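Can anyone check this?
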Amino acid sequence: MSKQILNGGDLLVKCLLKEGVTKIFGIVGGELLRIYDAVERWGREEGIDTVMVRHEQAGGHAADVWARATGEIGVCMGTLGPGVTHLVPAVAAANADSIPMLVIGAQIGRMFEDTGILQGGIDQLALMRPITKAQIQVEEPNEIPHAVQRAMKIALSGRRGPVFLELRETALVRAATEEDIKNIREPKEYRPIHRPYGHPEEISKAVEVLKTANKPLIIAGGGLIASEASEELKKLSQAYMIPTGTTINGIGSMGNDNKTFLDSYLISNAYRTAASESDVILSLGCKWDYSILYGAPPIWNQAQKIIQVDIDPNEIGKNRFPEVNIIGDCKAVINQLLNEMEKNLPKQKVSEWSEWNDYLQEIRKNDAQLIPKMLKSTKLPMKPERLVYELFDFISPDTQIVLDGGDIVVFSYKYINYKHRSPRSTFYPISMGHLGVGIPYAIGVKMAKPDKMVVCLTGDGSFMFNIQELETAVRLNLPIIIVIANNGCWGMIKSGQKGNLNKRYCDVDFPPIKYAEIAKSFGCYGEKVLKPDDIKPALQRAIDSKKPAVIDVEIAFETPSAMKIVGLYKKSKGLFG
C-alpha cells in the first residue's frame, strides 16, 4: 500500500506521529475516512493505531485515562454531529481535572452550510467552548501542521487540558503538498520544554512563613502529579518531617511507605486533625474544591497561613486566601524551596515538626486498629467496606485501580492507601464525579500499561453507562477485572433521600439484574459473589481465566460516614436546617 502523503488525512497522521501519539480512540465516520485510510495504508507501520470503541464517550474516557496513566496527551475522534456531541461528557470530565487531550472532530465543508446536510448545522466550536482550553478550526490541508502544533502547545502548557481541533472535510480530502510536509516541526521548536520556576521573592516569603510554623501541613494535588514531582515531595516532607496529605488527584504522590504520610481524604482522623490544628499549609498543585471541603469550617482552621503553589494563576485564592502565592511548576518550586530552606530554615524546626508528625501518626495507628473490627461482621448482604477491604487486600501495590461510582467510591477512600500507591496508578474523575468511566478507563489503562493488572471498582448504576465496552475489551483481548458493588440502587442519591428527605425514595432502586451472565454473553468471565470470604477466590478465578472479567458482588445499601462530614459543611452554609 502507498505510504505517500496524499491529503490532509495523511498530513494529520504525520503530525500526530511527530508528537509521539500512538493511539487514537474513537469510532470511524464518513468525514474521518481519510485519517483512518492513512493509518491503514502506512500509519500502523510507523507506530500509530486507531482503537475502535462502541460509543464516542467511551473513546473520550479512554483517551483521558491514557493521559492520566502516561503523562502524555490523549487523542480521541468523533465525526461531525452525533460523533462530536457524544464526546462531550468525556471532554467535560477531562477538562475539570486538567487532563491534556486532543479532541478531533469532523465538520462539513463550508459549501454545505445551511443546506440541511445530514448531521450538519451544529456549531461544534461553541459546543466545546466551555469544556476545552481552545477551539481551532481548519479548512485546508496547509493549515493542519500549524493547527496541530498550536493545539498541542495549549493542551500541554500551563494548567493542562483538552483542546478541540475541528477539521472541515475539505481539509482532509484535498491534496497535501511537499511544502505542507516541511511545516511539520519538532515539538521543541514550538512549545516550551523547561518548567516555569516561582518568583524568588515569593520563595523567600514562603520560607519566612514556614519559620513561624509550629504545626505545618503539606497538601499535594493533581498539579504535583502532572509535574512528576513525587520524589521531590517525599524529599521535602521527610527531610523536614512535615506531615503530608494528598487530594484524590494527588493519590500516589506519597504513600504508606513514607513516615510523614497522612492520607488522601478527610475521612481519615489523622488528616482531619491536621486540617483543624495545623497553623501553616503548603499547598502544592491543589485545588481548594469540594474534595477537600473548600478549606472551610468546621473542618479547617481559618487562622492557618497558606502558601499556595500552582501553575494556574486562576487557582490562587479560590475559597482560601493565601499568605504567599507562587505561580510555577510544582517540581521546580519544590527544588527552589529546598534550596532556600537549607540556607535559611533553623534546624531546630525539624525536631519541633517531628513531634507534631508523631502525634498525627499515632492517630493513624489508632485508625488502622479499627479494621479488624469491621472484618468480624458476618451480616449479609455484606457491608460495602468489607468488599473494598477484601479487594484492596488481594491486589498487589502496583495494581492499577479504576474507581467509578458514587457511594462505593467514597467507601473506597478509606482503604485506597491500604497498600502503597504509585503516582498515576489510581484513576477517578474527581472534579466531575462522573459515572460511567469504569470500563473505558480500565481499557485505556490496560493499553497504556499492558504489563500491569487493572482492576475497576464500580457501582451497579455506573456499570451500565458504558456496558457495551465489554465488547471492546473482549475484541482487544484485554484481561481487565471489573468488580461491581451491587446495592441495587443509585446509592449516593438514595443516601441523600435517606438523610435529608425522610426516606422518601424516588427513582433510585433497580430490579435484580444478572450482570455476570450479561458479561458472559459478551465473552467475558463472569461470577456472582454473595459472601465476603468468596471475593478473593473469585478474583483469582478471574485472573486465571485470562479474559476480561466481571465479578458481581452483592452489598448492603449503606451511607458512607464521610457523607456526614459533607453534611456538616452544608449545614454551616445554611442547608438542611
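Reply from J.R.: I decoded it. The mean pLDDT is 93.
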